[in-house]
Specification:
The protein is an alpha/beta fold and 295 residues long. The protein has nine helices and 14 strands. The chain has a seven-stranded mixed beta sheet with strand order 3-4-2-1-5-6-7, with helices on both faces. Strands 9-8-11-10-12-13-14 form a seven-stranded mixed beta sheet, sandwiched between helices. The radius of gyration is 19 Å and the shape is globular. This is Succinate--CoA ligase [ADP-forming] subunit alpha. It catalyses: GTP + succinate + CoA = succinyl-CoA + GDP + phosphate; succinate + ATP + CoA = succinyl-CoA + ADP + phosphate. Keywords: Ligase, Nucleotide-binding, Tricarboxylic acid cycle.
């Protein structure tokens, strides 16, 4: 099984005809994703050829859903127009919106997250790599060739790069799904949402949680693990050497005083039984040790 994304998922790409949209649509198709259309009002009725496969372009998300039965959209729309693109997808009734776009103003993200919260649309992101269920589907920019093998690990991460590294280091075990939730101050799907989904997934046997400095998402995840998660969890927190008051990479990755430090997050997770690695490679070894014990 998998969470949020399966081989039955039908994917639209908002911004498919742009440079990034074209590049990653091709990669998604190569990974086996059922990309059923793109969305660009100015190019409605046209088609784009991806190595012999013609993908139609629709004028709106609603038109794409009506014509194809799409239930997922991947958003590559530039920041000034991303809010409108997400609101359009929500209004059309899409089930899952994966917002890849980086640099969306926080106010815009607050607006479309609140709007989606009143609907049945799940948002992943923004500023995220998307999600992959190896052997089934890939919605976003995660390189499919680093972990093409389905397996028993579920991964949820704030960091795209660390998602890729852990998937590569654990490629022999394989993954049920890996979800990059994004590192902006306001995101849709959270660590807790993914923990709940992996806990309910019978094919996920171990969960990897990757966090980073800033905010309290990892502390809240630790509290949720204590009360609701029975499966083993292994964690990693990026940013142990980050200087105070300086944003590191993601807009939400900033330490202020004692708030949001990597050490505080590590202690919170370890207090509820999560083994936390000091480096990504050590984290992978902790996973391998735990898998060996439970095998």
């Amino acid at each position: 099984m998998a969470i949020f994304l399966t081989k039955e998922s039908k994917v639209l790409v908002q911004g498919m005809t742009g440079a990034e949209g074209m590049k990653h649509t091709r990669r998604m198709l190569e990974a086996g994703t059922d990309v059923v259309g793109g969305v660009n009002p100015r190019k409605a009725g046209q088609g784009v050829d991806f190595d012999g496969r013609a993908v139609p372009v629709f004028g709106s998300v609603a038109d794409g859903i009506a014509a194809t039965g799409a239930d997922v959209t991947v958003v590559f729309v530039p920041p000034p127009f991303a809010k409108a693109a997400v609101l359009e997808a929500v209004d059309a009734g899409i089930g899952l919106a994966v917002v890849i776009t980086e640099g969306i103003p926080v106010h815009d993200a607050v607006v479309f997250q609140a709007y989606a919260g009143k609907s049945d649309t799940r948002i992943i992101g923004p500023n995220c790599p998307g999600l992959i269920s190896p052997g089934q589907s890939n919605a976003g920019i995660i390189p499919a060739d680093i972990a093409t093998k389905p397996g028993k690990i579920g991964l949820v991460s704030k960091s795209g790069t660390l998602t890729y590294q852990l998937m590569y280091e654990l490629r022999e075990i394989g993954f049920s799904s890996a979800v990059g939730i994004g590192g902006d101050p306001v995101v849709g799907t959270t660590h807790i949402d993914c923990l709940a989904a992996f806990e309910a997934d019978p094919d996920t046997e171990l969960i990897v949680l990757i966090g980073e400095i800033g905010g309290d998402a990892e502390e809240r995840a630790a509290a949720y693990i204590a009360d609701h998660v029975t499966k083993p969890v292994v964690g990693y927190i990026a940013g142990f050497t980050a200087p105070e008051g300086k944003t590191m990479g993601h807009a939400g990755a900033i330490v202020s005083g004692s708030s949001g430090t990597a050490e505080a997050k590590k202690k919170a997770l370890e207090a509820v039984g999560v083994r936390v690695g000091s480096t990504p490679s050590e984290t992978a070894r902790l996973v391998l040790d735990r898998i060996a014990v439970t095998a």
